[in-house]
Amino acid sequence: MDDKVELLRRVPLFATLEPPELAALAQIANVVDVPAGTVLTHEGRHEGYFFVVVTGSVRIDRAGKTVNTLSDGDFLGEIALLDGGPRTATATAVSDSRLLQVTNEQFDELLATTPSVRSAIMTEVGGRLRRIDEEAVH
Q1: Residue 10 per-residue DSSP state
Q2: pTM
């Protein structure tokens, strides 16, 4: 458990969480090691996982075109996590990667019982959406 807390503490998304909140998140997070080439999410499918990249890199493709590459501390799956809709992109591990994986059901329960986790997620997702919007304008 302490290892997961340490991994979560290094993720910018969770940097503002207090130790008890990190411990609650660590309880529901699974550490998953995947080899390069593993497809984590499939665009258009309803899949119930949120991932944090602990180490490694993950390529994000939308409509067959690479739109981003994620690395240590980045996360994916938050849109489907928040609205329950289909995946907006396909995510594939570019290198051997270590991820933290949380199911939608577990995450929903944590957000309902831990407002500070909900606030941290919403702040980061809002910032991400603003960055995407700014990039679309330029």
Answers
A1: T
A2: 0.77
